[in-house]
UniProtKB/TrEMBL annotation:
Superkingdom classification of source: Bacteria
Protein name: Putative nitrogen fixation protein NifT
A GO biological process held by the record: nitrogen fixation
Amino acid sequence: MKVMIRKSERGFSAYVPKKDLEEPIVRAETEDLWGGVVTLKNGWRLDLPPMPADTRLPITVEARKLGDDE
């Protein structure tokens, strides 16, 4: 699914245009955000693609939504 990642003074957030949903990212598997699983405030878990740590934001990426068992 397409996800826009952006950063504000409150931290990172993810916007899913198809669902018109924007949620803060509350947990990241990797320190630099990319190439790992992030958890949104609503409980969704998204697997983000590997990107350079200095990737300019906002950016739209293809992320994979993980189920509860993954």
